[in-house]
Amino acid sequence: MDETLDEPPTSAVFLDNCHFSQVIFNNVEKFYVPGGDITCFYTLTQHITPRRKDWVGIFRVGWKTTREYYTFMWAPFPSDLSGDSIVQQQIQFRAYYLPKDDEYYQFCYVDEEGVVRGASVPFQFRAETEDDILVVTTQGEVEEIEQQNKDLVKENKELKESCLCLQKQNLGLQEELRLAQEKMKELEGEVCFLQTGNLELRRAQELQAVEMSSAQMNLASIREQNIKLGKENQELQKGLESLRSSCEKLELEGNFLKEENKRLTEQNGCRERELQQFKEHNQEVSSEKEQLESRLKTTLDHMDQLQSQVLNQEKEMENLLRMDHDKTEQLEHLKEENRQLRITLTEQKEQEEKLEQCLEDLKVTEASMALHLQHKQHQNHDITKELEEKNHLFQLLQRKKDEIEEKNLRLRQENNELLMRLSESPDYSARVAVPSAQVPTRSPESADLLFGNPYYNSLETSAVNMPSVKKCPLCHEVFSDDIGPRQYEDHVRSHILDCPFCDETFEDKQVYDDHVYCHSLE
């Protein structure tokens, strides 16, 4: 044998963790003649990457782990590898190392980690069956038998007739048994394929369960975010109530935010109800899956019982051929058992068709649930984006309000300082001493002020002799009279920031940066 002395890599991995569809075995015969070499043909699909330590083994049907191989050959490494190509390979097993019994075996492709990547249809090692048997007797033997049995001719004739009838019945039963055996072999192959399909379905269901758990985790995080947003919305409502007296625009936007928050809370309640319905539906689906798995186990156990019954029937047929006296009774018994087997086989086929329909329904329901969950996740994402934009707008408005209040405070301070300067200047005190006939009358707007309004027109006409004071309203820098109005305007304009995206201007650098960042989000 071309095998090396090294043992192949095996593992205790069970059938549940194997992938039987990555390597496909081709042209597998139903039986191979003992004493000759056999060639195994297989195809490597694009789902597997072959490695140096991969091997192909012959396993007896019913194996549990890859350590139960009968013989093996190292898989040849393909010369031309490409990611999407399908590679045809073949291996030749020597006759000396092949099994000598007539049990069922199958080819299995095992990778270097000891995991099965493909399995073939079961087959046997047995010789070809001879349909016709020719018996030759000599004429002398016939004459001796006739002379010895002259007295028993009548009895022999009757026995011959009965034997002929029994032989005909035996031949018919043998043909029925042969057909039943062939059907059983086909059923065994179908059972192997069904087992592999069930394993793949179980893996797909496990993956879907993992995806469902991750989706539930995402939904839980979304709920927490919605709760946080609800708290933030309450705080925003309080802030909006305090700002209603100062700005009518903020009142309108606050009412709009309240309505949107109510709508979002209602949507969150509806989504929580839908999630509960999805959880209940998932529990029902899992219970149906468990029921289906139990049914599959019972059918497999019943198939094992049927196989054992068929083996017992073969042994009974061999005993029937040896024992001629009890042929009639045993043949009737076999007929009844064959009828029962046919009935059970039809019932099993109906059960398998029902199970396949149930599995297809489960797949459809799971796909619809996954699509619905994705749609809900997209909706939650859009809602969170809208809330973030609203919060950002509210923060910008609040900053604008703070800036306006700061400007008002600055103007008040400047007014107070100007009033103090006017009160301290000698010219102002001399003007105060002028008779009441020459003092201009106060306007009703400045009647409530202590020293009058310094910005009123009457004071502007009398302020020609006062020293001019040029002060920047943004940085509070004071300029002398020598500086012209153009330089003073250039200095004030240097503090003003123009938005590159719109026509708005800003005086505060932080507000300008936030405004530009909002444009970048769009």
From TrEMBL:
The protein's UniProt keywords, in alphabetical order, are: Autophagy, Coiled coil, Cytoplasm, Cytoplasmic vesicle, Cytoskeleton, Membrane, Metal-binding, Zinc, Zinc-finger
| Keyword Cytoplasm in annotation | yes
Where does it localize? Cytoplasm, Cytoskeleton; Cytoplasm, Perinuclear region; Cytoplasmic vesicle, Autophagosome membrane
List the InterPro entries: CALCOCO1/2_Zn_UBZ1, SKICH, UBA_autophagy_assoc_protein, Znf_C2H2_type
Give the C2H2-type domain ranges.
Answer: 497-522
Q: Which GO terms describe its cellular component?
A: autophagosome membrane; cytoplasmic vesicle; cytoskeleton; cytosol; perinuclear region of cytoplasm; PML body
Q: Please name the GO terms of the biological process aspect recorded for this protein, alphabetically.
A: positive regulation of autophagosome maturation; response to type II interferon; xenophagy
Protein's membrane topology: Peripheral membrane protein
Report the main location listed first in the record.
Answer: cytoplasm
Superkingdom in the source lineage: Eukaryota
Name the Pfam families on file.
SKICH (PF17751), Zn-C2H2_12 (PF18112)
Coiled coil residues, start to end: 135-190, 233-421
Q: Which GO terms describe its molecular function?
A: protein homodimerization activity; zinc ion binding
Q: Which family does it belong to?
A: Belongs to the CALCOCO family.
What is the protein's name according to its record? Calcium-binding and coiled-coil domain-containing protein 2
Q: Give the classification, highest ranks.
A: Eukaryota, Metazoa, Chordata, Craniata, Vertebrata
Q: Which gene encodes it?
A: CALCOCO2
